[in-house]
Amino acid sequence: MLQQQSSIWRYFDLWLAAAVILLTAFGIMMIQSAVTGAPAFETYPQRQVLYALAGIAAMFIFAAIDYRVLTSGHWYIFAGIVASLILVMIVGVITNGSRRSFDLGFIQFQPSEFGRVFMAITLGQFLAQRQHLVTKFSNTLIALAYVGVPVALIFVEPDLGMAILFGVMWFVMMFMAGLPLSHFALLATVAIAGGALILPSLAEYQQQRIVAFVDPEAVPEQAFNIEQALIAIASGGLFGKGYLQGTQSQLGFLRVQHTDFIFAVITEELGLIFGSLVVIALIGFILLRILKVAEITPDAAGRYLCVGIAGVLFFQTVVSIGMNLRLIPVTGLTLPFVSYGGSSLVTLYMAIGVVQSVRMRHRKQEFG
Questions:
Q1: 0.85 exceeded by the pTM?
Q2: Considering its fold, how many domains does the chain have in total?
């Protein structure tokens, strides 16, 4: 048994783990800069270190667990996701007008954050079991309903960004499973029409974010932070103003700079060369390592869940950077492994642990 475990750990991807830890360390350094001069947030860097240590432990724990144990219980996982999303709407704490977290005292636990990881696992197994039905439109509708339940619950919290994230994960995994483009075109048309219909029902702050993106002058308070982010990014230039030397960040012009707008802090202080490109390169490397695991595993469920996790990381990165550059509306999605946040960081490490588990068991002879 020990010999078998030793053999499995030989395939642990040290490069992937090192890239994730390096990116997290870079994020902690930038969080330290972002909260300098803000007494209310001065403990955040130390707390992020603790979250990172918990995340690293979670990565190794999930790597040690055979992911097939998780996929075999995918219906229980799905039920757990749905139950936690229902419960948080009943007893969760209200933060910024949304009820999406449990306050555990030492950390705010957000079920939708954990759902990113476990939905990839359960949907991966769901699709693997229905591979032979992938060309049938009825199967596409069933798969859509499968992810639609948690998406609907997340939407009414409300958390539009996370609801869209789940939808993107569904599409990426369905595409990998062989979703016909005709199905996608039809669903995209319905989604656009549906989006126009539900726009008036969005929470007021969500509508203001969209208006601020289209017409900044109409909602000056919402547009202010975006303008400050653009100023910070533009003023950073190629090499930045220097660590702890940013004007927009250090003088308090930029708000929520340790979460939503940390990319602006990075670019202002470290510039394009030593800031933005470093973050993008590390995330790109992490994505390539995850997709490599998807390529080498012979197991369909393992392949789909790896692609789903890669899709989550890619989408969050694009959205986070895009809203800093005013390319898309502000959604509240954070920069993976870089922005401050306990449940977000720990769950992302759990996701990397699941990917490691797939990689460590990718050899055909290890599948019984």
A1: yes
A2: 1
